[in-house]
Amino acid sequence: MSQLLHTTFVPTTSPSLRRPLTRTAHNPTWALQIHSKIREIFMPALSSTMTEGKIVSWIKSEGEKLSKGDSVVVVESDKADMDVESFYDGYLAAIMVEEGHSVPIGSPIALLAESEDEIAAALAQKTSSSSAITTPNPAPAPAPDSITSDDTPSAITSANVSSRSSVANGAMGSSVHPASEGGKRVMASPYAKKLAKEYGVDLIGLVGSGPNGRIVAKDVEEAAAAKASAGGASEAAKSSTVGAALELGSVVPFTTMQSAVSRNMLESLAVPTFRVGYTITTDALDALYKKIKSKGVTMTAILAKATALALVKHPIVNSSCRDGKSFTYNSSINIAVAVAIDGGLITPVLQDADKIDIYSLSRKWKELVDKARAKQLQPHEYNTGTFTLSNLGMFGVDRFDAILPPGTGAIMAVGASQPTLVGTKDGRIGLKNQMQVNVTADHRVIYGADLAAFLQTLAKIIEDPKDLTL
Questions:
Q1: What share of the chain is helix, strand, coil (3-state, %, to 5)?
Q2: What is the mean pLDDT of residues 63-85?
């Protein structure tokens, strides 16, 4: 179930809905007897860090009848887009915040009437409350496709991956929302609609591969490729490569997700961190990956599994400190993998990675990717990580440092595996594939010796990966 709309009663003041006004000896003023009521629908809090929400699209129109549980509006929080459902039967009498506008949490965004007779009164009330609407933020130009996992661009692309937001005071599910296109309703993600405009692809009639047939970015890209191969979209193909033109020197406001990332990064500065690097030979791991890749195994799953097995032996590295006075030995090993998306960052989580076999883990990772691209991730699928991986190796980056996510104990930055001349124990020189990993950790809980021991264990697992396929 999606986030439920929170409402409050507002007395109806429409003359047509009033009963006769009367005076009494005890109350000399005119007493208005309420015959019916209008509910205000408020901007819900979709995550613990959300301070304002943006209306992505209204699924229902003004005057349309609603039933309890109907998806009414799509809201963009600081982390995701999410369907919001009505908790009551009635009519969507007035929309107070239009698509593309943002308002603080708790601000009224619409009015829900119990009957059609109340719609006129709600529209009048909308006029008096129009000051709640804010100016929409300009949409940032789409960034070039990039990923921070091992999957190919067809599996994960920049601006394709998003997630459902966490819920405060409500339940959430995987319902989808229809998006308006050309006067007809189609089920498509916001980024798919953006790509469709860039590629010149008509969403009407396009079959979606996302959950419940929802059109996702991959579907648009495939349709554009097919159109281009037929000679009908050469200009669209060029624009998809070049991307939208940037106006140099312009000032672009943060999106809600960028604002959340900014707050998290500032919060990270309050944590005393340190970094430890390690060089790991990957010849055996590369051979294993080549052997089992055809079975659907991804490098992300392999690295997550190896990391999880090492964390089993070093639980302190999987711990976390949230209050500055104590720390928690987390009972589960949940590996979060940092993935770049349009205007932000998301970390799909492979839960209990130490207990799941590599094949199931790979299938789970692909499932998370598909759900993320379709904006179907549940909160526990992206905010429950206990240890984070960030991989830039596919871009040829040999080493880098990662910023510690708030509320976690450590994050590991993984560089590219590269051929390296090394000296052997018998005094010879040989060529081996090696990668650099750098771990950033919370020094309040984890010390240098802890990370050194963890990295030694991780290196042994990667250099002799037989346990990864058990």
A1: 30, 25, 45
A2: 81
